């Protein structure tokens, strides 16, 4: 859970805001992923 929260903090602090077709937009960073078993 701590890894997830750290990634969300990174996205919120350093992420790039992008517009999308819905008009809501997204905020993202490049090159991060999670794996679940």
Q: Overall pLDDT, averaged? A: 91
Q: What's the number of extended β-strand segments?
A: 2
Enumerate the strands of the largest sheet in spatial order, edge to edge or round the barrel: 1-2
Sheet of most strands? 2 strands, antiparallel
Q: Can you tell me the residue ranges where pLDDT is under 50 for at least 5 consecutive residues?
A: none
Q: Number of helical runs? A: 1
Q: Which percent range describes the beta-strand content?
A: 15-25%
The helicity comes to 25-40%
Helix/strand order: HEE
Name the shape in a single word: elongated
SS content category: alpha+beta
Radius of gyration: 12 Å
Instruction: Measure the end-to-end span.
Output: 14 Å
Could you describe the 3D structure shown?
- This protein has 37 residues and is α+β, with helices and mostly antiparallel strands.
- It is built from one helix and two strands.
- The chain has one helix at 2-14, and strands spanning 16-18, 26-28.
- The mean pLDDT is 91.
What features would you highlight for this structure?
two-stranded antiparallel sheet; alpha+beta; 37 residues
Give the secondary structure arrangement, pairings included.
Blueprint lengths: L1 H13 L1 E3 L7 E3 L9
Antiparallel strand pairs: 1-2
